[in-house]
Fold:
Amino acid sequence: FRDAGHILGSAILEVWVEEGSKTRKLVFSGDLGMPGRPILKDPTPIDSADVLLVESTYGNRLHKTLPETVEELAHAVNDTLTRKKGNVIIPAFAVGRTQDLLYLLMDLVRQGRLPRNLAIFVDSPMAGSATEITLRHGELMDEESRELLAWFRSSPEAPYLRVTENVEDSMALNKIRQGAVIISASGMCDAGRIKHHLKFNLPRSECTVIIAGFQAEGTLGRRIVDGAKTARIFREVVPVRADLYTLGGLSAHADRDALVNWLSRFRKPPGRTFVVHGESETALGFADLIREGLGWNVDVP
Structure:
């Protein structure tokens, strides 16, 4: 198992299979992480395989750069808390995305780009557990994340962070009218406590909703991103008046160039390469890119 840099515990598999006197090596990329992202180390380079299976989730597109994304996040939070005097609501996946957002918000406070009295609430039992597990495994973090964690634990300027523990604590957040950054699951707004926070904050023009992850077709999050004027939440039609920001650079998946860069670390082409784990059009296009750019023998199952 090699570190895939995607989410905590994600792995690339190298498998050596012995059959008679022959040994063949199979490599499965799993979900590869985007290099240079907060908290986790970059995906481990692999240099050889007889058979390779490689993911292609974002094999046909590039992510927005992290500096651009951080700039947009800082603007959205500052504008909402200081000018509009509202709340910031962030739907986020409990594992990976929530921890990335906490890192970025903490780092912006440390840099003086967000107010030092920032109040952050994580309202998701699973996200709280995932954050606790992440903090227990400093050996898996990159150096920058370990430095930021040490600052957070020792600095009087560190923001206020609270992970809600029960339903009563979660409901109490709906009484906060301004100054709160609330991160909650589910990331696509279709379930979980985020629906309560959207119900109370979407109708308020002084508030902001930050979409920080992919929104699948048919989800509440996707309808909001697509510009819906109203949202049906708990059988109630809620007007959408809050500002909306869509951050495009926080994906935990490697984009097209990052995938190609990982493949280019092989010393020689694998005997056979199979492109998997992507929508059919994306997988076929990425296979063409590998075939033409690297000259490999590629198939899409």
Remarks:
- The mean pLDDT is 94.
